[in-house]
Specification:
- By secondary structure, the chain is mainly beta.
- Helix content is about 10%, strand content about 35%.
- The termini are far apart.
Amino acid sequence: MRYKGTWLVIACVILLFGYTTSLFGWGFSERDRETVNLQTFLISDFGDEKDQTNNLVWKARFSRFAKPSNIMDPQSPVDPEACNSDYFQGKPLGIPEEMEQRQKWVFGVKAQYVRKGYNYVEIIPYHLARAGVDANGKPSNVGELKETNVTLVGVVKTLDMWVWGGNYNYWLEFYLRDYKGFLHRIPAGDIKYVGWKNLRTTVPGYVPQAQNHVPFLKPLKLEMIKLWSHPEERVDQFYVYFDYLQVQTDVYLERFNGDDLANNRW
């Protein structure tokens, strides 16, 4: 029995080592597997220059018990006066100084529900066929919209985002899809606080972002940001605002003779 236990441990170590090394396929030599180049990239500024350049807008989608427009008909559309999303002027104190002057807009969501429970709001990225602004420079979120996702850069280590909380008992999650098609739910913490706060979360090592074959890197895609209410929280009002989503990521990629062909798309 002692030997069986020893072999079991050895087998587990081998499997773990094989799985771990498969996560670092962008460095195919032993030396370069341990080389990193950590950088920070802005993913979304929620209505400012980055999103407008990429024709990216955000909209909210509400769960089953969101307040309906006709309270006597639960199947009627969501009441836009109770549940909605839009862009507002504002910015947190603490974003990088070189970017602070360009930040004007934040993305806000309000919600009401008809019963307590695990209510939720999904914050979805959309591609706008034609980006535009109104007379005040406010980003347009109407027009020909197509639900999309946001491709993250490199091998992501952490995500962080500024979130304005109104002391509501909710928590936040990022939903990331890997290259195999699996969706990963990454908790980012509670938002039961007042004012702006930078929430940061680590992407677990088991989320695949690379392979051992060329091309090595397999970027993650951000599918949505999701907010959940605790069952005891009030349902008659909820407000939240978002700004400045960025990633800390490893962009190192080992060079080799012919790497210009690595990312060819046939």
